[in-house]
Write a structure and sequence with these properties.
Helix content: 25-40%
Mean pLDDT: 88
Number of helices: 7
Strand content: 25-35%
Strand order of the largest sheet: 3-2-1-4-5-9-8
CATH class of the largest domain: Alpha Beta
CATH architecture of the largest domain: 3-Layer(aba) Sandwich
Number of domains: 2
Largest sheet: 7 strands, mixed
Order of helices and strands: HHHEHEEEHEEEHHEE
CATH topology of the largest domain: Rossmann fold
Oligomer: single chain
Distance between the termini: 48 Å
Structural class: alpha/beta
Length: about 230
């Protein structure tokens, strides 16, 4: 993490803070995560990042084991720990891991190693559900004939003078001050994140643009036992 007192405050917040932050964007994201898990029907789930606790409250009754890992003991996770540190007791334990809006709080250089740890916690061909903020303008369109809302996006910098000035004059796109990076911040692109997923042992099964975030369903690659040929 960025070792400054101001940045580190976010890792010592009470859960009531996250409850007060609940809004349409959060519920919209939760819907896709919860729907994906109910479709997958995993037995054992690991969630990294406690947040408001609503995802756990919805899914815990539906699975055999639900474990939460978080760096903040005030949120009362099952395990207190940094996602960047390997948790040996979790290896090959879970059918599904959820990490929603967490990776952007890590320095980008630390993300790959964190993903490799997460990959080791999954059983063979287990699934990882990931959301990461994407800094851009979002539009949600829903017509009477569409069951699913349609989301389309415009890159940051085109819909207001302030955004244009920051992107094209100052050459600095605003991101959440609690984040180390975001997709679309002028440095990190989707292709960079996809590359990290693949280097960390995952294949991308599905990708979807949501409001505020991008959503991935990843599968742990099967380990191939190669035989030596003499």
């Amino acid at each position: 993490m960025l070792e400054t007192p101001e940045f580190s405050k976010q890792f010592h917040l009470e859960q009531n803070y996250y409850l007060k932050q609940l809004d349409f964007l959060n519920w919209y994201r939760y819907f896709f995560i919860i729907k994906e898990v109910t479709d997958l029907m995993p037995k054992d789930v690991l969630e990294i990042g406690t947040g408001s606790g609503f995802v756990k409250n919805c899914l815990q009754p539906l699975v055999r084991k639900y474990v939460v890992l978080d760096i903040n003991p005030k949120l009362k996770p099952d395990l207190v720990g940094d996602v960047r540190a390997y948790q040996g007791g979790l290896e090959n334990n879970f059918d599904c891991v959820i990490i929603a809006d967490v990776l952007e709080h890590l320095p980008f250089d630390d993300v790959e190693q964190s993903l490799k740890h997460i990959c080791s916690y999954l059983k063979e061909e287990g699934k990882l559900l990931v959301t990461i903020p994407h800094r851009r303008s979002h539009f949600l369109l829903m017509t009477p004939l569409q069951v699913d809302p349609w989301v389309f996006t415009v890159p940051s910098g085109f819909l207001s003078f302030g955004a244009f000035y920051r992107r094209f004059i100052k050459r600095k796109i605003w991101i959440d001050p609690d984040h180390c990076w975001e997709i679309g911040d002028g440095t990190v692109k989707n292709v960079n994140v996809d590359r990290l997923f693949k280097k960390s042992g995952f294949t991308i099964e599905r990708f979807k643009k949501l409001l505020y975030v991008d959503f991935w369903v990843l599968k742990k690659e099967a380990v191939v036992n190669e035989k030596l040929i003499y």
